[in-house]
Design brief:
Radius of gyration of chain A: 13 Å
Strand content of chain B: 35-45%
Number of helices of chain A: 0
Helix content of chain A: under 10%
Order of helices and strands of chain A: EEEEEEEEEE
Strand order of the largest sheet of chain A: 2-10-9-4-5-6
Distance between the termini of chain A: 40 Å
Largest sheet of chain A: 6 strands, mixed
Shape of chain B: globular
Structural class of chain A: mainly beta
Oligomer: heterodimer
Shape of chain A: globular
Structural class of chain B: mainly beta
Radius of gyration of chain B: 13 Å
Distance between the termini of chain B: 35 Å
Strand content of chain A: over 45%
Number of strands of chain B: 9
Number of helices of chain B: 0
Largest interface: A-B, 19 and 23 residues
Largest sheet of chain B: 6 strands, mixed
């Protein structure tokens, strides 16, 4: 059974930083492309970032490029999202999303003064 | 890049079939098989229903099926049930090495 446990969401002031983590189990993590997807309450889904199995291919949505960094530790079956220079509009539930698998329950990031 | 285009809402009666369309471009749906569909009930995380155009994850009912023609993908739900009432989102990989989602479709079971 696929299990994904996201953590790291919090209330942070504009300009602040957070690191999200996602611990995965139930599938072969090291070969799986992984994504972060976010959803503002009451709104649709927005893709944030992707990383391939060995971490050599990463990409970002234009709205987060230069501020967010995706990474992974295959020895720990863990995906990360380092978020810097956070803005009010980054407020959302962030989901860890493996390709072709179900997602985690998400972690809430609130950016507010 | 603009979102994939989905109808804002569709409806059907129990037992009927409905189809939700998802229109993209030659830079996404038209080029790749990496089209997925997600179901989201209120307050819950999205659930993968279809991946790679027409593949169902284990545990997903065979009442759900996917297809693609040109730049448009479709999700068909047959034998509508009350629990199918939810929001549905499509997604596609793109030629820019990104992923794009549709705006979502609210399915109402009358």
């Amino acid at each position: 059974e696929v299990q994904l446990v996201e953590s790291g969401g919090d209330l942070v002031q504009p300009g602040g930083s957070l690191r999200l983590s996602c611990v995965a189990s139930g599938f072969t993590f090291r070969t799986k492309w992984m994504h972060w997807v976010r959803q503002t309450p009451g709104k649709g889904l927005m893709w944030v970032s992707l990383i391939n199995g060995d971490g050599t291919n990463t990409n970002y949505a234009d709205s987060v490029k230069g501020r967010f960094t995706i990474s992974r530790d295959n020895a720990k079956n863990t995906l990360y999202l380092q978020m810097n220079s956070l803005r009010v509009e980054d407020t959302a539930v962030y989901y860890c999303a493996p390709a072709e698998e179900d997602w985690g329950q998400g972690t809430l990031v609130t950016v507010s003064s | 890049q603009s979102a994939l285009t989905q109808p804002a809402s569709v409806s059907g009666s129990p037992g009927q079939s409905i189809t939700i369309s998802c229109t993209g471009t030659s830079s996404d749906i038209g080029t790749y098989i990496y089209v997925s569909w997600y179901q989201q009930h209120p307050g819950k995380a999205p659930k993968l229903m279809i991946y790679d155009v027409n593949n169902r994850p284990s545990g997903v009912s065979d009442r759900f099926s996917g297809s693609k023609s040109g730049n448009t993908a479709s999700l068909t739900i047959s034998g509508l049930q009350a629990d199918d009432e939810a929001d549905y989102y499509c997604s596609s990989y793109t030629t820019s090495n990104t992923v794009i989602f549709g705006g979502g479709t609210i399915l109402t079971v009358l």
